[in-house]
Automatic annotation (TrEMBL):
Entry keyword annotation includes Endoplasmic reticulum: no
Domain Tail specific protease: 177-326
InterPro entries, per the entry: ClpP/crotonase-like_dom_sf, Tail-specific_protease
Keywords per UniProt: Signal
Superkingdom assignment: Bacteria
GO terms, biological process: proteolysis
Signal peptide: 1-28
Name of the molecule in the record: Peptidase S41 family protein
A GO term for molecular function: serine-type peptidase activity
Gene3D superfamilies: 2-enoyl-CoA Hydratase, Chain A, domain 1
Pfam families according to UniProt: Peptidase_S41 (PF03572)
Length: 354
């Protein structure tokens, strides 16, 4: 998804009217619009997009490239009648957003797309699939393996469903309360909304977490705030007995693969912000390591505007995929890598020594 900014447009309605008088068959011969919206609404969306991009978005890779794409977008509105084809217009919007130094992470999607995705995934969470919890037996103790499911859609809808499934999955995993170490598996985090799993993870974060957003002008802002996450958990009717609480401050293994993307990479960076007690295993993540802010537009479409990158402490800004500290060995399966992660977690956890 992506978001944008307002701009100016030049009206050519008079010229368009003259053209229609000269070519009376032009409208009849024009291809039918696949997704028409009122021209004024289209202008509002484009103006808002340009305004947001120029006020908040990451800067373009090349200013001239951005200016050309912006000009083509505005030109696409010139001479339009009472309606505009949204599909065609959004192609121009996305081309402009693609000039930002945002790894192609900014985009705009029509309301029907977001609604279908949200409906489908919300239904999946209500019905449930395989449990997000499992146990891994190691020579040093039983390890809890948690794979937070992907979350899409708005926080108001997603967070209560996520919390409900989190507690239900844990309650139906025999022996989960006996586990002495934890592996967080981010392989199902393919993008979407990071906040539902982020809220649930709050016991794993300390006050000195070093993960930060880095704005377009270089300002760093810590984004892991455990008290705020606890408040959000309560707001969305989470239970006080979060089962991750007993792993607070303990060594933590994190598994990632090439599919771990966007929201998943935010969670990965947040966990890495805990410092040496966290160790990562698996493969280099996808590489959508930028942060988006969602904006609902006048036509109901959703735009995700990339406003920052990530960093840990004073380290350089993260760009591209994040390599694990312990990579998967050649010929090794994901299951084998997970076992190595679980073994390290059990060996390192004081809870497994009792």
């Amino acid at each position: 998804m992506a978001a944008g900014r307002h701009g100016k447009w030049v009206s050519t309605l008079a010229m368009a009217s003259a053209t229609i008088l000269l070519l009376p068959n032009a409208l009849a011969q024009a291809p039918a619009m696949t997704d028409p919206i009122p021209a004024q609404t289209a202008r509002d969306v484009v103006q808002r997009t340009i305004q947001l991009v120029e006020a908040e978005g990451l800067y373009p890779r090349n200013q001239n490239e951005y200016a050309s794409a912006k000009a083509r977008l505005l030109a696409a509105l010139d001479g339009t009648g009472v309606e505009v084809d949204r599909q065609s217009l959004f192609q121009h919007v996305n081309t402009m957003l693609g000039t930002l130094d945002a790894d192609g992470h900014s985009s705009i999607r029509p309301p029907s797309t977001g609604h279908r995705v949200q409906q489908g995934l919300a239904s999946t969470r209500v019905q449930g699939t395989a449990s997000s919890f499992a146990l891994v037996l190691t020579a040093h103790g039983v390890v809890l393996h948690w794979t937070p499911p992907q979350s899409m859609g708005d926080l108001q809808t997603e967070a209560p469903l996520f919390l409900q499934r989190f507690h239900a999955d844990y309650a139906t995993t025999p022996g989960a309360d006996k586990a002495c170490a934890l592996v967080v598996d981010l392989s199902a985090q393919l993008g979407g909304n990071a906040w539902p799993p982020f809220i649930v993870m709050h016991p794993l974060f300390g006050q000195d977490n070093a993960a930060a957003w880095v704005g377009r002008d270089g300002k760093r802002t810590a984004f892991v705030n455990p008290p705020q996450l606890r408040q959000m958990e309560a707001r969305f009717k989470g239970r006080a007995d979060n089962p991750l609480q007993r792993f607070a401050g303990a060594p933590l293994a994190v598994f990632v693969d090439q599919r771990t993307s966007s929201a998943g990479e935010m969670l990965l960076i947040a966990l890495m912000g805990e410092g040496p007690r966290t160790r990562t295993f698996g493969q280099t993540s996808y590489g959508a390591t930028t942060a988006n802010v969602a904006h609902r537009m006048a036509d109901g479409s959703m735009l995700a505007l990339t406003t920052s990158r990530y960093a840990i402490g004073d380290a350089p800004v993260i760009r591209g995929g994040i390599a694990p500290e312990v990579p998967t060995r050649p010929g090794e399966s994901a299951r084998e890598t997970l076992l190595h992660a679980a073994t390290w977690a059990a060996q390192s956890s004081p809870l497994c020594r009792h």
